[in-house]
Specification:
By secondary structure, the protein is an alpha+beta fold. It is built from 3 helices and 5 strands; from the N terminus they run βααββββα. It has a single domain, classed as RelE-like (YaeB-like fold, 2-Layer Sandwich), CATH 3.30.2310.
Amino acid sequence: MNHRLIVRGEAEADITDAALWYDERERGLGLELVLEIRAAIRRAVKDPLHFFLLRRRPEIRRVLVRRFPYRIFFIVRKDAIVVFAVLHAARHDRYWQERL
């Protein structure tokens, strides 16, 4: 079942910051990161219950990005998937928890 997708501003900022950082290291790598993040989000929208459950109320799940060490955190609602954080794997979980 496909859900409507909502990407909060904080998550968009996470993606932009990460892409800029990667592009500074190697031109074009930031775009590759963005494409991998988009693919991971598509997987989450297509089948959100397939991904690791972190909290039941609200229902928060996590999808991993391929090729890059990033985690995407999203809330599952009846009508939508809400992406609220895209964080490097080295960042502590308190960063996504503060956004709730």
